[in-house]
Amino acid sequence: xxxxxxxxxxxxxxxxxxxxxxxxxxxxxxxxxxxxxxxxxxxxxxxxxxxxxxxxxxxxxxxxxxxxxxxxxxxxxxxxxxxxxxxxxxxxxxxxxxxxxxxxxxxxxxxxxxxxxxxxxxxxxxxxxxxxxxxxxxxxxxxxxxxxxxxxxxxxxxxxxxxxxxxxxxxxxxxxxxxxxxxxxxxxxxxxxxxxxxxxxxxxxxxxxxxxxxxxxxxxxxxxxxxxxxxxxxxxxxxxxxxxxxxxxxxxxxxxxxx
Length: 259
Hints:
Elements: H1 5-11, H2 14-21, H3 28-58, E1 61-68, H4 74-82, E2 90-93, H5 100-103, H6 109-112, E3 120-125, H7 134-138, H8 143-162, E4 165-173, H9 176-188, H10 198-203, H11 207-221, E5 228-232, H12 236-250
Helix pairs in contact: 2-3, 3-12, 4-12
């Protein structure tokens, strides 16, 4: 294989050698792609710091919602988004099953309590859209509760936007084959086995049901003022770069701000 001086330099770097030797069999193209990914990720993370600095200075409030298939890479994308920014001005929200008291409240109430304060970015690792897909597929809500949610959600988001909060909605999409592959990797890795839930175990069997409700969610909630961005996530590195680019493009921050 003939390598250009530029690519040879990439492979001779610490990151390049690590990428080349970390997986078998050796794959030069994969290693070069990974070096390029790391460089681009670092550049974008600098912009994320700029975005956060702007939000803090201007007392802006930002919500980033992550939805998608199980094992689509939501958590990995959020880690890359948050690993370099100031942890005192951001939160990751991944709410557990609602308590008995929460079940008796207005559905959106516990999410309202998680909305950002001035200068804060909140990343929702799943959100109120649980009721649009996961809950009806798995029988966690009634048809009436689902219908009420679908009737209220656009107005709920309109009120959030009108209060001055920026909202970015991201859906990470993978193929059924890729999901199955990732589940097998999780099951075989002692460091990741804890990630496998009962819902994950049923995800392949319920694939078509999830698809039906996902399409209904997009048809109803992909509005002009609060659109969805679908990120193709079969290749994790590309997905993470695309996620960050979309967030940066969606928020009108000061790109010339010195940090």
